[in-house]
């Protein structure tokens, strides 16, 4: 614990007085201070001027990061027959129907993304209280309710990131690993911010993107100048 304390203190000293920096500066700072013994995830948090309690201010979407996330995404697919075969061939980790529903109801959720064919939604719908709070519920708006299960599985495996605003008006996601080149992390940050910007809801009033912060799993956060991150 003493070593962790020293590392945290050093990181905070390195971040001191550095606020509203450029995307490039933030990435360099976070990357250079990610000194844990494992490959830390680089995480982004965007504070939005929305109230997601109102339907016309909900923000959700999906973005394919140009350089992937560096994470091995476990994908579950609800499908039958030929579509189940397609999912397996595309690399899905778990494929099933009623049997998979029963597994999830029993408390076993060994996947990071859930995809379903439209005809499976009456079954998947029973899992709303379990999958919903974990942001795992398949949704046609982000391409996880689809007949094209093969493409959906490949996209999930290839670095596609889903995002959904939380009650406090914050969207967050992992956008890469500390081991990534700085240039690749910068590209991923910009792609994510651009996707959130394009997902601006009709009901958003006033300032939309209020704050953007970047951090690593074990490190402190640094704020990014919003104007430098948003591509007009």
Short structural summary:
By secondary structure, the protein is of the alpha/beta class. It contains nine helices and nine strands.
Listing every helix as H and every strand as E from the N terminus to the C terminus, the arrangement reads HHEEEHEHEHHHEEHEEH
Q: Which segments are poorly predicted (pLDDT under 50) over 5 or more consecutive residues?
A: none
Cα-atom Rg, whole angstroms?
19 Å
Give the biggest sheet. Answer: 4 strands, antiparallel
Please bin the fraction of helical residues.
25-40%
- End-to-end distance: 45 Å
Beta-sheet strand percentage? 15-25%
Determine the mean pLDDT. 91
General shape: globular
Number of strands: 9
Query: Taking strands numbered 1, 2, ... along the chain, how are they ordered across the largest sheet?
Result: 7-1-8-9
The helix-and-strand class reads: alpha/beta
- The number of helical elements comes to 9
Subunit organisation of the chains:
single chain
